[in-house]
Design brief:
The chain contains 9 helices and 20 strands. By secondary structure, the chain is α+β, with helices and mostly antiparallel strands. It has a 10-stranded antiparallel sheet, sandwiched between helices. Strands 3, 4, 5, 11, 12, 13, 14, 15, 17 and 18 form a 10-stranded antiparallel sheet that branches.
């Protein structure tokens, strides 16, 4: 759960009331101000749960890379969570365990930050945690020079090339699936556009929250670049001692007519290709959770999760963590799920690394927060875009490829998934 100020005793007055309650606080306004001032910031909101937060500044942070990055992150947080006046960390990790180029130079393979300033709103209450008397300790940050912005002509050519490459990748993937080398692989593609709206990520946050009230909306801002998204997929949440995971795989477009839309949803529940894709994801999640959890519970049949542009097959899963398991251990166990990687996992990730023409960076990686008690939530960073203050926006979308996948249908599905971000950024489809 979102931490109440009781986890920070020095913010309470003698009779236990919150000494820094700020009913008029607005995390989104804080995030917008950080963007205008050119500051690094983290924004998170689950509009349906009336929860939002903005974190700025840094008391401490860790930049991590390599195959042991999650263990290093877990050890770092365990050592620091009891020592800081803001017992809370925010951040995320890239899809791969090493930094990538392609515009992601400011993000690296992972970073967690204990913020200097934290604004949390839950319902009609807001808390500001700003302990000013603490000395500041930063891990080193090396601002690397960003690449020169591309030209409009080069972007259009590259977008077209990546779309054609995606079609070829789907054909190659289905061939490897037919031969038994793969069972499933998630293939992503990107598009780059120029938009003046990219200089104001907070505007996009408002639009995404309005369009997708059941999704987690996030933004991670570093050195003039902002990674934003509205994702329907929870990687893992720990709340009240219970682990919650979302299995999300299998997609169909929405229809404007209600009867036709209902027929599409019912057809999705019976579609052999999509059900197979979904079962692969569920089975792998259950297997991985069994290593770090007990009392694992999941529905036998998927249900429909309806978003404004698509229907998804969705299975919620819950479990109890082992006494030695923390949230970051759970992230390590689950990332990447077959929904964004594939099975067998090693072969699928090798296919992704070799075939995708644009680095994923933090796309499809875990993004979220953790508090002093070990509770928190990380989502899979889907339906997302990397914005540059100079006006460039690179949008990402991907699909799970299984036996029976059709390349042209998969390309059209990625266009559906890119549409919400284009609308949020004011980009014409």
């Amino acid at each position: 759960m979102i931490p109440a100020p009781t986890v920070v005793p020095d913010l309470l007055d003698p009779d236990g009331r919150d000494a820094r309650s700020a009913p008029d606080g607005d995390p989104l306004a804080d995030f917008a101000m950080a963007c205008r001032l050119g500051e690094d910031a983290f924004y998170w909101a689950r509009p349906d749960g009336q929860i939002s937060l903005c974190a700025t500044g840094s008391f401490d942070s860790i930049d991590i890379r390599g195959e042991h990055r999650f263990q290093e992150a877990s050890a770092w947080w365990s050592a620091r969570r009891v020592d800081w006046p803001v017992p809370f960390a925010v951040g995320g990790f890239s899809f791969e365990d090493h930094p990538t180029d392609g515009g992601w130079s400011q993000f690296g393979a992972g970073r967690l930050t204990v913020p200097r300033n934290l604004c949390i709103r839950r319902g009609d209450r807001c808390w500001r945690i700003q302990p000013a008397a603490m000395s500041v300790s930063h891990s080193s940050q090396h601002a690397e020079a960003r690449e020169d912005p591309p030209t409009i002509a080069s972007v259009m050519e590259r977008n077209g090339s990546l779309a054609q490459a995606f079609l070829g990748n789907v054909r190659d993937a289905t061939a490897k699936i037919a031969s038994g080398e793969l069972e499933k692989v998630a293939i992503a593609r990107s598009e780059t556009h120029f938009t003046a709206q990219a200089a104001e990520p907070a505007v996009a946050m408002v639009r995404l929250a309005h369009q997708y009230p059941t999704c987690a909306v996030f933004a991670v801002r570093r050195s003039g670049q902002t990674f934003i998204g509205a994702t329907p997929e929870r990687l893992v949440q720990v709340a009240g001692g219970v682990v919650s995971v979302s299995a999300l795989a299998g997609t169909a477009p929405r229809a404007t007519d209600s009867a036709a839309d209902q027929a599409i949803a019912e057809a999705l529940l019976a579609n052999r290709k999509n059900l197979h894709e979904h079962r692969v994801v569920v089975a792998t999640i259950l297997e991985r959770l069994a290593r770090v959890c007990t009392e694992i519970r999941g529905a036998e049949l998927p249900r429909i999760l309806s978003l404004p542009n698509v229907h998804h097959l969705f299975t919620p899963i819950q479990a109890l963590p082992l006494s030695t398991t923390n949230l970051i251990d759970l992230i390590e166990a689950l990332h990447p799920t077959p929904a964004v990687g594939g099975t067998p996992a090693i072969a699928a990730r090798r296919f992704i690394r070799e075939r995708e023409g644009s680095p994923r960076g933090w796309y499809a990686g875990p993004v979220g927060w953790i508090d002093a008690s070990g509770e928190g939530e990380f989502v899979v960073a889907l339906r997302s875009a990397l914005l540059d203050d100079r006006g460039w926006a690179t949008l990402y979308a991907g699909n799970g490829i299984v036996d029976g996948s059709d390349p042209l249908e998969e390309l059209e599905e990625t266009r559906l998934k890119l549409r919400p971000m284009k609308m949020a950024l004011g980009i014409a489809s």
